[in-house]
Design a protein that fits this description.
- The structure is a homohexamer.
- Chain A is an alpha/beta fold.
- Chain A has helices spanning 12-25, 47-66, 82-88, 96-105, 121-130, 156-170, 187-194, 201-214; strands at 2-7, 31-36, 40-41, 71-74, 93-95, 111-115, 137-141, 175-178, 198-200, 233-234.
- Chain A folds into 2 domains: 2-95 and 204-240, Rossmann fold (3-Layer(aba) Sandwich); 98-200, Rossmann fold (3-Layer(aba) Sandwich), CATH 3.40.50.12500.
- In chain A, helix 3 links the parallel strand 4 and strand 5 (93-95).
- The B-F interface holds B 121-122, 129, 134 and F 109-110, 135, 172.
- Chains A, B, C, D, E, F: It comes from Mesorhizobium liriopis.
- Chains A, B, C, D, E, F: Keywords: Signal.
- Chains A, B, C, D, E, F: InterPro entries: Asp/Glu/hydantoin_racemase, Hydantoin_racemase-like, Iso_Racemase_Enz_sf.
Chain lengths: 246, 246, 246, 246, 246, 246
Amino acid sequence: MKLLVINPNTTASMTATIAAAAGAAAAPGTEVIAATSAMGPVSIEGFYDEAFAVPGMLAALRKGEADAADAAVIACFDDTGLDAARSLARIPVLGICEAGLSLASFLTPRIAIVTTMERSRVPLEHLVARYGKSHTTTVRAADISVLSLEDPRSGARERLRHEIRLAIEHDRAEAILLGCAGMADLAKSFETEFGLPVIDGVGAAVKQAEALVALGLQTSKHRTYAAPVPKTYHGVLAGFAPVEAA
Amino acid sequence: MKLLVINPNTTASMTATIAAAAGAAAAPGTEVIAATSAMGPVSIEGFYDEAFAVPGMLAALRKGEADAADAAVIACFDDTGLDAARSLARIPVLGICEAGLSLASFLTPRIAIVTTMERSRVPLEHLVARYGKSHTTTVRAADISVLSLEDPRSGARERLRHEIRLAIEHDRAEAILLGCAGMADLAKSFETEFGLPVIDGVGAAVKQAEALVALGLQTSKHRTYAAPVPKTYHGVLAGFAPVEAA
Amino acid sequence: MKLLVINPNTTASMTATIAAAAGAAAAPGTEVIAATSAMGPVSIEGFYDEAFAVPGMLAALRKGEADAADAAVIACFDDTGLDAARSLARIPVLGICEAGLSLASFLTPRIAIVTTMERSRVPLEHLVARYGKSHTTTVRAADISVLSLEDPRSGARERLRHEIRLAIEHDRAEAILLGCAGMADLAKSFETEFGLPVIDGVGAAVKQAEALVALGLQTSKHRTYAAPVPKTYHGVLAGFAPVEAA
Amino acid sequence: MKLLVINPNTTASMTATIAAAAGAAAAPGTEVIAATSAMGPVSIEGFYDEAFAVPGMLAALRKGEADAADAAVIACFDDTGLDAARSLARIPVLGICEAGLSLASFLTPRIAIVTTMERSRVPLEHLVARYGKSHTTTVRAADISVLSLEDPRSGARERLRHEIRLAIEHDRAEAILLGCAGMADLAKSFETEFGLPVIDGVGAAVKQAEALVALGLQTSKHRTYAAPVPKTYHGVLAGFAPVEAA
Amino acid sequence: MKLLVINPNTTASMTATIAAAAGAAAAPGTEVIAATSAMGPVSIEGFYDEAFAVPGMLAALRKGEADAADAAVIACFDDTGLDAARSLARIPVLGICEAGLSLASFLTPRIAIVTTMERSRVPLEHLVARYGKSHTTTVRAADISVLSLEDPRSGARERLRHEIRLAIEHDRAEAILLGCAGMADLAKSFETEFGLPVIDGVGAAVKQAEALVALGLQTSKHRTYAAPVPKTYHGVLAGFAPVEAA
Amino acid sequence: MKLLVINPNTTASMTATIAAAAGAAAAPGTEVIAATSAMGPVSIEGFYDEAFAVPGMLAALRKGEADAADAAVIACFDDTGLDAARSLARIPVLGICEAGLSLASFLTPRIAIVTTMERSRVPLEHLVARYGKSHTTTVRAADISVLSLEDPRSGARERLRHEIRLAIEHDRAEAILLGCAGMADLAKSFETEFGLPVIDGVGAAVKQAEALVALGLQTSKHRTYAAPVPKTYHGVLAGFAPVEAA
């Protein structure tokens, strides 16, 4: 199977981190195709960046489906544009927050998400509520920028460690879900250090995508995620107009 | 005060309907400035269209705030891009679903939203849940397109009436909230016909915007809606990159 | 329009504070008529006082509606007798907790109510739950009496400040809703001091009342808030018996 | 033990029905003292009547506690003034809705309340939500007046039967909770007729009151239900002012 | 009436504690029959022990019902096997967590459960959620073993005291519910020490059982708790197979 | 990897159906080991059967883990004994209801579970609530016995079809989750017939188990699912006593 993994920000070095995590998680028969969004922000930090990351992500998804991808992963922990993606595509589309929460829920009823910026806490709490996990999951932020994760001298990792410790002691967390695609390479070392499961959403989403493809399951096109109605789009986004399916 | 009312789709005739409703609701001292989005879909029907309506709406908001608008209304019942708008602007931004639900809640504990397309029910139910009104509010769809509301021969109004009747009889609704900005001109005739309050979100949002401005209240920029972090944006959306506030 | 603002306790000096706040918030065309309840407690602190404040408030409402008020505000943060008031009157009736929460929700998803007495926390948490805002709102008490707010030497303001600080730091509050009508004059100075929105429910309710009147909206008399059934009342409350509407 | 059972409306014939049900449920050592409220409405139908029934109920409670009652029951299914009563008294106070729901929950996870008037559905749904039973309990109304229950020719019983049937078939109810104190005498015949538990709240509350007294448990006076603060009350309700406990 | 009180663990000394608490709570006409489970764990600490305690508990229940018990109490705070017991028996069956929460809810809207082992917090939080009391109830653990409660030198009581103090100060608890059947003898001394209600679930369940029997109420056998379908059971549990009711 | 799939009832023919479904879903490198419980009921229909199915399931799990299974699936839609299993084992353990709901949630926000017996609806609704999916999922029962699924002349399939149709039309379901392990072979034909995703929990759980093993994730043994405390067990279940891990 061909699995499209989309980095919805435009930073190629982060795509590399994501692709490595996806490749490490993928089954032997899975070809991972990592795509970097061609337009939008270099990182997604809060609601504003998220809004501008969606068109580029959807463009990458449309191209990937045309190129015969069997499933897609949106590799940003905000699950950026996930509903729009499911409306656009017939193939299954996974968000890494939703996928990570699902896997974590099989391991414990007490989960903590540790993310980057304080402003991302409420957006993630909205996702957690929508996925029905408010009663099992808390969200903490290390107050670091997304791109600082790529700089070992930034102190970002130490701040993450500090929040993980607080999550275990004060929030009664029994497993940690890493709240940013850029943290994918940290899961195993943190797992060893803290002695409890540390889940990376990218790997989780890769396995869920493989699961759906193996079982022959696709997004329901009945009602909520029905294909977009063909219509005119204006301006620089005209090229994204939905058209009658062939 | 200057009140910006943004139609986030690109159909100018719908902007006219919205502007009329806004003007009718506005206080004597309020100057309503109606803006049609310059890019994106001609109507917003489901998650996909919504994603592509956000950049044009935010462009209109940015321009309006620069032109000294005191508050803004996003005149689409999906509250399209509302969180991004609140992050971008310092002035208050209102969505017509949130504003309509708030006003309706002062009149009764049993509300029914009647919207256009079946595919919009789940997105609206998500909004209702997020605004904390799932216990008082049901959502129905008349299975009509948004633009059919502009055509008196389309039968759209009769289908709306049918759903309103069902809402009153089967859902125990005691007030109706019209679930599309394009229905703004129908509120009063339906109110007379059905003998209970029928609320149009556009008017509701206009009054809420006036209220916030009169009270000197602005969006909290503490944490969740902090101004976007200055950074590079790529591609056709590069012009939307957030910059350091002067 | 004529707007009736009812202080449901019998302390005229508090009515003056409330009337000033209401007048400052009111639009030019709004005539504010402030009424002090003629019977019941001098302040409302907890469930018991609240029960005895309702008949006096309803008497003031009945008189005000007969005197052609277009809308009414109950200026006690417990939203004392709000449901009974909506059953009695045809004109819209606003509670200051409900109105304040609605306005605050347009500004941020993280609200803290700061009220007076510890015993009022649970009653306010019940209101917050009923209005669907438990997921966005926390309640704190400064452990001060209602009437101490009128005495600048009581230390009450400093205790309020202390709780506001805790709300911002520990509860992640991004806006403050003042939890007593007697705090109406403190909003602006606290807003300056803490650098985030501080909302007074009296002003919020005045604007919501104006909004409903401007839009021609009235309480739904369908089912829940139907006019009281004419019947006999006995004892000192006999004068309150509902009668057949003329 | 002495058990005060208060009918918070002023209709003595309904007190007789309630007293009979209470007496039938009471243990041999329990002396039931039935009190009819001396002031307020002849029946409680909706929020307005409820507000005016509270002072009379509290007067009866105060007198009963002074006369050495060990516990009290408020025999109206709206649990009229229950929080105020718990603040006033040291002895335990039971509402018949809360008590009935508690007992019913021991028998099945699917309960239907069948009450009198349509306008009482939302108030009862609020109680059900506050008691945490929304996930197990539905509310139906037979559209009959409270006092019609006393008239065998009114057809009220047949309408109750009709709603019970619908509750079993459509709401999957497995037990019925009678939603009015005036229905107390119908429980056993309905139980026989429908073949599932039919619970009367008056009997339930009597047993809960006996349980609390037997176990030596009293209302917590810590914070929420602390004794009312001594203060001045004005007007016809001046006599209800809380005073310093001796 | 005959009341069966089942200790679902196999420790007879704990049965003695439970029997004493039940006897102290029982009405004069109630004969308490205490049964110790004949098979399974010596104490129930977490999900695993709970699973193996159920067959022995059900065997004791079956025997008790055959011996003409009128009601039964399962005296373990996990409400071990409660749903299975209600399916098996026609007589009412009470769990001590559910019964204790019900009684506590009549006394205050702020309850704290204090239990033994940390691993029991999540199971009890699940019960609290299912009983609809998450909004009023918090759960704390003293990190002690169940059987240490029987050893006065173990320090267990001091650790319970410590958690009760934290519950009152930090969780705003206004009443304490003891979270283990083995704590039944501590309620009264803690009540005196802390000055607020301390509830033992065993006593609570005894009174609820008496209440149901006095009112002639039995478990609803309609749907959810219908008698088990007669069928073959294999292996060492073959003797537990449900058979056609005579 | 070795994947243990446990049929917690004792009917070997149902194990064969389950094993076929598991084998069809398994990846090439996965060895499926299907185990039939050696003790307990021939089918699990309601709470009573469930209680007696747990010891046999746990015995099979203990043996499987000793025989080097990498993960386990409990193939009964009640997720029978899942918490106990996670406490016992270090390897991941999946329930088919939880796994099926997780996968279905990636495909649509409107799911219907269609199960066998009416008495199983409430138990499944409890699971759905605990997994946080009450807002997306409804439960229907076809009123058929579990073993009738194995008899093509029983009419069971037609009744399932009938409920699926009602779920789509009345509950707005957009995907169907089959609510019994014995239905595993029906998914694909129903999917073709109804034109929307039909999910079998057995296949879903197999893929989730493979995902966890591939990612090196195991049950968190921190607090809730800590290994059972070594202690004495009595009677026929003595052999199940937890012992000190080597």
